[in-house]
Amino acid sequence: MPVQRLTWLFQQYIAQQSSPAEEAELLTLLSNPVLDEPAKELIGRLIRTLPEEDLTAKPYTAEMLTAIFAAGESGSEADRQSGRQPATLRSLLFRRRWWAAAAVLVLLSIGYLLLPNRPSPVGEIPQASVIEPGREGAVLQLADGSRILLDSAGNGLLATEGGSRVMLDKGQLRYEAAAAPGGTAAFNTMSTPKGRQFRLSLPDGSQVWLNAASSIRYPAAFSGSERLVQVTGEAYFEITPNARHPFKVQGPDGLELKVLGTQFNINTYADEPAATATLLAGSLQVSAGRQSVVLHPGQQAVAAGQLSVTEPVNVQQVAGWRHGFFLFDGANLPLFLRQLSRWYDVDVIYKGKTPEKTFRGKLGRNLEFAEILETLRFFRINYTLQGKTLIIE
After folding, report:
1. 12, 120, 135, 205: which could join 18 in a potential S-S bond, CB 3.0 to 4.6 Å?
2. Where would I find the Protein FecR C-terminal domain in this sequence (predicted)?
């Protein structure tokens, strides 16, 4: 059954018909050593169907090939004794120890980057083995200033705030109305450090996914004419419709989003060049200072001095983190590493000129940092890892 499921998921992925959940499942199956042989067979079958020139058609694919094979075996013992050279790239890809690299290259050739959980093809990375991927976790600050570490809190009632019961249920924080809100509003703040993310169900039932190094401040019970929350960092929202009580999200520097019922992502990290709001469904009004725009699905508002609209936007790339992936579509090295540094709680330092590399594709957020470093080595990016500081040389 696992082999049949792997085959189906692989075919869906190659046809670019996979859902985010199916792609996450495929990544998990490819990471299972028990399925090495059927995975190798699937990848080999795909290689045979592709014209050889397709495997090196894209510059970054050819560059990765050069890096892999320059550092690896030059051929079999029989080849070396006879002086024969492998006739084609395909013969190189089928050499033992390189099938996992072949998977990367083939999937790159159709516009994706997928690194399964495989041993590094070149050398060892002992320091990186202690750096694990991020996980579920956050800190909840109640109205009285007390703090609850959600990583270690047990399921059930955590507190009663502003007429709501604050509940933790299988990795999600939610608020249940216990009484009609009255008196002074009780505000709570949920924050995630680097290497953590968490999900929140607001008092009105709206869903929030909070990315690493982010925070959201909100009332324990909504009252009045509008529902207002404040966000720093990055969050994904699915808003419960209520035309009589519009939902508003305030970000830094006067950024404000007004919605009725919609799905959107907001990114306000201070180290990003601009704050962005990306709409996946519904409608969204974005304001910054005296400027205001209305977004339609597939559009992104960019606040960088002036407020502008970008379209079309790869919304799966923007919100991929919620489904357990890093998705890149032409990202440069600094953008690539900023996202990784938040999730793996790693500091990044550049020495000298920043390498001009472009990243396209997909990485699972469950990969260990050692596997992330494989990507840098495949792209011939020189680095040194000192503790949890990555130095790009």
Report:
1. 12
2. 326-392
**What is the bridge-based pairing of β-strands 207-210 and 234-238?**
antiparallel
**Residues forming beta bridges with residue 194, ordered by sequence position:** none
Beta bridge partners of 219: 187
Q: What is the dihedral of CA 349, 353, 359, 365, to 10 degrees?
A: -10
Residue 239 CA to residue 243 CA, distance in Å, equals 11
How does residue 119 score in pLDDT terms, banded at 50, 70 and 90? very low
Cα four-point dihedral sign 87, 90, 92, 95: negative
Q: Which two tokens stand for residue 223?
A: 């009252």
> Which tens digits make up the pLDDT trace of 332-375?
999 999 999 999 999 999 998 899 888 877 788 988 888 888 77
Residue 189 main-chain phi, psi, to 5 deg: -130, 125
Any idea of the CA torsion for 193, 389, 385, 270, to the nearest 10 degrees?
70
In 3-state terms, what secondary structure has residue 287? Answer: strand
- The CA-based angle 159-145-344, given to 5 degrees, is 90
Nearest Cα to Cα of residue 227 among 263, 260, 275 = 260
Tokens of 274: 């601009």
Q: What are phi and psi of 384, to 5 degrees?
A: -135, 135
Distance (Å, whole) CA 263 – CA 260: 10
Strand partners, 304: 306
User: In angstroms, rounded to a whole number, what is the distance separating the alpha carbons of residues 9 and 12?
Assistant: 5
Contact 139, 196 (CB under 8 A): no
Cβ–Cβ < 8 Å for 134, 143: no
What's the CA gap between 256 and 332, in Å, rounded? 28
Say what the pTM is. 0.71
